[in-house]
Amino acid sequence: MALRESSSLRRSGGEAVVEGVREIERCSLAGYNIKEVYCCPALIDEAALPLLQRRCDGALWIEVTAVVYAKAALRATTEGVLAVVSTPRLSLDDLRLPDNALLLVAEGVEKPGNLGAMLRTADAAGVNALVVCDPLADPFNPNSIRASLGAVFTVPTVCTTSRECIAWLRERGFTILTAQLQDSRYYYDTDMTGPTAIVVGTEATGLSDEWREAATGHILIPMLGVVDSLNVSASAAILVYEAVRQRLS
Question: Where are the domains of the chain?
């Protein structure tokens, strides 16, 4: 319960809580160390149990009642199984990238659900890494893991500062494209076929001046209605898939 609630405890201990059969299986397939599995026989699908047990071979299995599971789980009905897993934290220098790498950079995203949705998009689009700068949301928050459908385990994810990320991108010759309304061109008129970092900002205020000034290009999504912006995860998906389109055409 403490791991579920405390991002500082997750970081300091290098552990996180993963709920659900699919998410635990993806965690295992990605090579993460599953330390403990808490299983509620009254809730779990018996047909899923044999495969899950093979995936979590070596973990400590603990049966719990529905009452205990409801207290420990973020959602009392998440298939009756949750696990405690080791979560090694990557640095920028740990990333192994191709020559024309595509990165998604998120500055100061506040909502774990948005971070999870971006991870899900990154996995689907073959993004090489997600870099979370000056993070307010933890990629291993249970809500983020759930929203990502387990993609947090398949997409290399680094948490760092904006300053460190900008210096690292410049050193490696990345095109830095910031999503912003001011002084921008439409995203589909911008070349994204080389090493590219697509940068999106916070839900409330967008990107900081630090990123705006560091950018090699400013890109804009046309807004034809009353509202002037999209949800940050929706914006990220549009921009990332434009890069995919260009690279496949």
Answer: 2-86, 92-248
What token pair was written down for 243?
Answer: 């890069």
- Average pLDDT of the segment spanning 158-181: 96
What pTM was estimated for this model as a whole?
A: 0.92
- Contact status, residue 214 vs residue 179, Cβ threshold 8 Å: no
Q: Specify the CATH class of 92-248 in words.
A: alpha beta
Q: Which of 199, 230, 204, 194 is nearest to 215 (CA)?
A: 199
**Terminal-residue alpha carbon distance, the chain:** 48
Q: Is 117 within 8 Å of 146 (Cβ atoms)? A: no
- The predicted-structure confidence for 96-150, as pLDDT tens digits, reads as follows 999 999 999 999 999 999 999 999 999 999 999 999 999 888 999 999 999 999 9
Mean pLDDT value across the chain: 93
Bridge partners of 157? Answer: 130
Third-level CATH fold of 2-86: 60s Ribosomal Protein L30; Chain: A; (3.30.1330)
- In the predicted model, is pLDDT for residue 77 greater than 70? no
Separation between Cα atoms, residue 162 and residue 3, nearest integer Å: 27
Cβ atoms within 10 A of the Cβ of 30, count?
A: 14
Using CA atoms, how far residue 205 sits from 133, 149, 151, 181, 202, in Å, is 15, 27, 27, 12, 6
How many other β-carbons are positioned within 10 Å of the β-carbon of residue 61? 13
Q: 39 has which bridge partners?
A: 63, 81
Number of CB atoms found within 10 A of residue 96's CB: 9
Question: Residue 213: how many CB atoms within 10 A of its CB?
Answer: 9
Task: Say yes or no to pLDDT of 63 above 90.
Answer: yes
User: Average of pLDDT values for 209-219?
Assistant: 95
